[in-house]
Specification:
The modification 4-aspartylphosphate is found at residue 76. InterPro entries: CheY-like_superfamily, EvgA-like, NreC/VraR/RcsB-like_REC, Sig_transdc_resp-reg_C-effctor, Sig_transdc_resp-reg_receiver, Tscrpt_reg_LuxR_C. The protein contains 10 helices and 7 strands. It is α/β, with parallel strands linked by helices. It folds into 2 domains: 21-153, Response regulator (Rossmann fold); 173-230, Arc Repressor Mutant, subunit A. The protein has a 5-stranded parallel sheet with strand order 2-1-3-6-7, with helices on both faces. A two-stranded antiparallel ribbon has the order 4-5. Helix 4 (109-117) crosses helix 6, helix 7 packs across helix 9 (201-215) and helix 8 packs across helix 9 (201-215).
Length: 236
């Protein structure tokens, strides 16, 4: 079983709610059994007022727009409409002051490094037992940055600042621009993007110009390389 290691020092950022002030959380996970079991466990363990759930990134965004921001978010790494860092980058833009915990079976060092650089409060394994899970979340909600024991931050420390800055640039993209960038990374031409999103090709070109400006890329190939460098979109 993967355990969470001792905390790293917290980086500067928006104020975090203490664990005792976390009364409402949002779990974003497309596996019903995992989602429901996690919701029940946390509601009992923390005496939470409310545990909201969403099965996709789009559903989570809409729920936040309608119901407001939760006190904390637990986000699955891979969702039907967002794989890799995309979900984290997108929600970080929408709810900048809310601690987001990534949860996944993928404990690869590079992926954890990207998630932490992109603003995750912590990264935990789906294989954690109940006590370890509750302890990890309590520490995160108290402001600590928690990662699995297997994570070696020193291997990525030199690149973390660059990854964090790049993640901030991608977070400035609008939802439509993020969709277009995803299609660009899939190798789609402007005409194909226009057809798939039901927008004019001229509109696609306008969005691409804005995307390039925001992420400081000169060519489509460079934009793809930058997205891949922070694993923004993982292959299905």
């Amino acid at each position: 079983m993967a355990l969470a290691k001792q905390p790293e020092s917290d980086r500067a950022g928006p104020p975090r709610p203490g664990a005792e002030r976390v009364r409402e959380i949002l779990i974003v996970d497309d596996h019903p059994l995992m989602c429901d079991a996690l919701a029940l466990t946390l509601k009992i363990s923390f005496g939470l007022k409310s545990v909201r759930t969403a099965r996709s990134l789009a559903a989570a965004q809409e729920q936040i727009r309608r119901q407001g921001a939760p006190d904390a978010v637990i986000l699955d790494l891979n969702l039907p409409d967002a794989r890799g860092a995309e979900g984290l980058v997108t929600l970080r833009r929408q709810i900048p002051g809310v601690p987001i915990t990534m949860i996944s079976a993928d404990l690869e060092n590079a992926m954890i490094s990207v998630a932490m650089a992109a603003g995750a409060q912590g990264y935990i394994s789906k294989s954690l037992g109940r006590e370890a899970l509750v302890d990890s979340l309590r520490r995160m909600w108290n402001g600590e940055r928690v990662t699995p024991d297997s994570y070696e931050p020193e291997q990525a420390s030199e690149e973390d600042a660059a990854r964090a800055e790049l993640a901030r640039r991608f977070a400035s993209l609008t939802p439509q621009q993020m969709k277009i960038l995803r299609l660009i990374c899939q190798g789609k031409a402007n005409k194909e993007i226009s057809y798939e999103l039901s927008i004019a090709e001229a509109t696609v070109k306008t969005h691409i110009t804005a995307i390039m400006s925001k992420i400081n890329a000169r060519r489509r190939t460079q934009a793809v390389l930058l997205a891949n460098s922070i694993r923004l979109f993982e292959p299905a």
